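re the bet — no i am not wrong, look at it urself. input seq straight from the record:
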Amino acid sequence: MRWIKGLILAVILLIVVLVGILFAVNNQQTVALNLIWLELPAVSLSVWLLATLVFGVVLGMLAMLGVYVRLKATLARSQRQNKQQRKELDSLRTQEFKELA
């Protein structure tokens, strides 16, 4: 089962790489990016598109960082409460057995 998962992952990765190569080959036109305050040099269109994709992914990860930290803190708090409640339950169970004896 594990090797099937690896094989499927390898096939998907190969397809993504091939689509990326086709994308880069079909978008060879050079484009100068003119921002309001800065003009960037002329580079192929595929480079600009991939750079914006990477920038968006990084920006999205930074935006989700606060949610991730909050969820990790909530998980840690819940695990501490769970551990405390298990200890309390174990002590109540042993106390019940001591009273019966």
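see?? The chain has a mean pLDDT of 88. told u. also The beta strands are 30-34, 39-44. so pay up
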